[in-house]
Structures are given as structure tokens and as C-alpha cells.
Amino acid sequence: MTAGAAKVFFAGTHRVRRPEETWAVVEPVLARYGVTRVADVTGLDILGVPVMMAVRPLARSLTVSQGKGQTAVLARISAAMESIELWHAENVPNPLSHRATPAAELGLPYAVAGVVTGPGSLVTEQTPLDWVAGIDTGNGRAVPVPWPLVGLPPPVRPWTPPGFLWSSNGLASGNTRAEAALHAIYEIIERDSLSRIPRGAPWSYVDPGSLTDDVCAPLIERVRAAGATVTITTVEGRFGVPCFAARVWSPDFPVACGGWGTHLDPHVALSRALTEAVQSRLTGIAGSRDDLPAVYQRVRLSTENLVEPDAPTLSWAEYEPSGPGAFDDVDTELAWLSAQVREVAGTGPLLVDLSTTDEFAVVKVTIPRTLFDAEYLHTGQ
């Protein structure tokens, strides 16, 4: 069951397989990756937007992964694949291409300082590092990537030079490597865009009631009909790709829960933001995720009240998306996005293929000179 490059599914996400076909591939191998259960938690909330959770009891990082989507099968795939992605990052199958080798000896097309992600870095071009083989998605050339940027740490963390943060940013899966690469790149662009917003900067709002499409408009109507408030804001980034932030709040769970989405198709970007906001809310309601902040203290205090903004808002018709719009196949889309990344970051996205089967792909992508403010983006859900 090999997937091609042409997209065949467009409802809230772009895929080269229909969701039912993807689930038929994924479900039989869940046990191989330690996933024991994929549970439907949609009914724990009043909003009715599909959210699932995948359970992996022997995980070295998160034992519970969430998934969301326009339909139950999309949410089920999302949860299962997020858990499978983490398994691959915990059990990187790739051998080291270089051991204890300074970046200065490798002729890299990027400065190692551009991929250092933590504070107080002691990493220089002369620091001996372990490396994994990757490729530049723009030109296909082999490029070494520092090992700490590829995997997630085992329970006893190995020593690494201060400067690298263990992170799942850029870890993604897909029906094909190109599809997985696109999801990873969009995530990195989304987080870079959000991390560069000055604290306290005014938001540019979009009127949720102005949507008339077949995907986002029914989703917004479903959430608002349940008595929840929805806000949508646009996010201006460096890469020329539409990006949105969404927040959902209701009196029965008085915590403003956020979600973000990025995609060349603005409807897909917005759908991702909206469904992620609902997923974030259900994560708090279910209380099952390992790294959950103290959400229920905020529920008890009921100190938040998210209301429709008084600031000027754009209608969806007035919103002018950046970029060329959606592509019909993932290879062309990846080529355009890789060129855009190179123009901004100075090199194409650096991809390490972690796949352990031919049926689907898992990748870890790094883009030098991008930001990920985890504290800002993950605080309070």
C-alpha cells in the first residue's frame, strides 16, 4: 500500500491517503511501538470536537499523547502517530555518522551556533559532538546533524554540552517522507513565528462568524453552540506562511485554552489552530498527560473570562494570506517551502529520517536560526 505524492484528502488537513486507508496501515502495528490503547475522550467535554488519546505505558517521555481532527478517524490517527513519533525519538534507529567530531571538521553549510537552542551555551565550532546523517530537503545533499537535536533522552540522560535542549519540535510523521517533512517544517515555522511576537504586542483578530467554508465554519459553529467563546488571531512570521492562534473558553471550564496552526492553505492552518485549542482544553479536563500544568487550580479560582475582543477585527474576506496558496502534491509543496526556508534561514530544512517501516514515515527536522520559546507557548496549556 504505497502512497504517491498527489494529495487525495483536503478536509482540514492535506494527505496523500484517505484517513481510513492510513488507519488501516497504522492500527496493525500499534503494539510494535508500545501503544496499548487509543481512547476517545471527546465526550468528556461539551464541545463535541473529536479528541483521542494514545497510551504507551513503557514510554521514556510522555505515556499519553493527544490527537485531534475534524473527524474521529483523523483524531485517532493523530493521537496514534504522535505516540509513534515519540517512540522513534526515544529509540533512534540511525547509527552515528561521526563520533566526538567538532563541527569545524565537517564543512557544514550552517553554523552550529544556529542550532543551539538552550541558554548558557558552551557549544562552539570546536566542541566534539556526535552526529547523525541528515539531508537538506531543498537539494537532497547529505548534511550531518548534532545527535542531541534528533533523539529524546533515555531515563538516565547522557551528558551533552550545555546549549542543546531535548525537544520534539520538528518531530513529525506522514504517509510519505515528503508529507512528514511538511508537517515538521510547518511546526517549526509556527513556533518560530509565535516565539518572535513581542510580549504585550497587540493581536490582529479575525471575526470567527465571518467564516463560510465547509471545514472551519461548522467547527466554529459547533463550539459556539455549546456556549463557548472563540477568538482567532493572525500571526505574522518571517517565512511567508499563514499562521493562526485560536483560544476557546467556556464557563463550565473557565480556562482560556490555546491552539496554533500553520499551513500554506489558510483554512488548514486555521483548522489546526481551532482543533488544537479544543485538544488543549480536553487535555486539561482529562488530566492524563504526564507534563500537565496545574490547570485545576485555575479552574477552582475561576479568574479567567475570555470574551470577544473589543479590538477591530478583520472578516475572513478581508484577510489576505501570504504565500502561494495550497499545492496539489506534497513534493512540489516541499520544494517551495524548502526554498523559502533557505531564503530566510540560509540553509534548507535539515531532515533525519527515523522511519522503521516503508508504510509510513517518521522524521526529525531542524531549521537553523529558528526559535522555540517552550515556556511561552506551553504555559497554561
UniProtKB/TrEMBL annotation:
Residues 67-381 form the YcaO domain. One of its GO terms (cellular component) is ribosome. PROSITE patterns: YCAO (PS51664). Pfam families: YcaO (PF02624). Coiled coil: none annotated. It comes from the Bacteria. GO terms for molecular function: transferase activity. Keywords: Ribonucleoprotein, Ribosomal protein, Transferase. This is Ribosomal protein S12 methylthiotransferase accessory factor. It comes from Amycolatopsis jiangsuensis.
